[in-house]
Every structure is written in structure tokens, then in C-alpha cells.
Amino acid sequence: MIAVEKESKERLKSIVRQELIPKLEILAVSLTEECIEHIILHSQLKPIARDQYIQKNGSYEDGHLNFLYSGIAFGFYYDQQTTRTFATRIWKTNEIIFDTKSFLNCENRLESIQMLEDGEVISINYYSLQILLDKFPEVLALFPYLAITFEKHSRFYQDMLKRTIKERISLFLKHYPSLISKISSDIIALYLGVSKTSFNRGYAQYNHNKDDDV
Description:
The chain is an alpha+beta fold. The chain has one domain: Jelly Rolls (Sandwich), CATH 2.60.120.10. The protein is built from eight helices and eight strands, in the order H-H-E-E-E-E-E-E-H-E-E-H-H-H-H-H. The strands form two sheets. The chain has a four-stranded antiparallel β-sheet. The protein is globular, with a radius of gyration of 19 Å. The termini are far apart.
């Protein structure tokens, strides 16, 4: 048992140093060795099964900063007024999942995030992140870049929803070329803001036109 825990900790340390830290440093400032050690100490490597939630909507204090080490994740929220579920985003391997607005403004999170295939995340909880920022305020420089990434996707997504079904499918396949065979048509249709029937019909037409072009 001790050997397993030691191996798990070493693997966490290796992933943080080789995968997460370089990504954070590309976004903002270089991190000190003490800061990196603090991140490793307060991080958790979690296996997440398909359909399991990485986190559900709720209090900002229950929010985490998540690094998707492997797998595909899907964000969505339920609107009580329209009684409809709306998609927000799809995350791929090596992307950071974090609600900067909720964290900084102490606002409850509306979005739930679910895994679409088996994978792993490195997670830092709200209180550990607060301690990290208090001790290493330079980490706060990351937040504007994470917010910009969020806004960039939001603009792309809102623009996509204004387009025809054919154009939405084309954009989806351009940005997520490998996902069409990995996730269900229900999820893709929800993300594209169309019915499953409309998506299946549109995708069949897309493939037909593509074959004609060959």
C-alpha cells in the first residue's frame, strides 16, 4: 500500500513538472521551485471514469482548478426558466478547466463538467488555491490569460451558433477532428445547439458532399 502511494505521488510530481508547469509558464511568469513544490503538495491526481462528473454546479468554494491530463470533458448547465440543458464547452487533453469569474468574484458556479471518456485530472481545490495565491502572488498573473482563453472560446462558440447546421458541423470537425468517433451524437448535437435528428441528417449530408468532392 505504501509502495503504491509512493508511486502515485511520484507520478503526480512527474506530470506536474513535465506537463502542467510548462503550460502555466507559457501563459504567464516563471514559477519558483518553492512554488512548484507547493503546487505538487496541494494537487491531487484523480482517475475519472466516463460519465463521471469532474465537478457539479454549486458553491464557488467547491470549485477546483483542473488540468485535464487525459480524456475529454464536457461543460453544460440547466436553465430552469426554459427547462433546457445548454452546452458550454468541450475540453481536450492538456487543457485547463477553471472558472476564474466564480473564483475571483466568489460567485456560485452554474456549470457542471462531465467526462466523456475515461481519463485523469490534476486538481487543486479552492482553499489550496487561495493559500497558493497568498504565498505566491505572482501566480495571479495566470488568471487574465485563463480568462482570455475562456472569452476567446465564448466568442467562437456564440459565432458558431449563429451559423447554419452545415457550417456548425464543418466548424466542429475543424476544431475537434478526432472527437466525432469518440463521443455520442447526443453530446455533439447539444454542443451544436441542434436536435440529434438534425445533426445526424446534417452530418450524413456533410459526408455525402465530401465524397462528391473526392
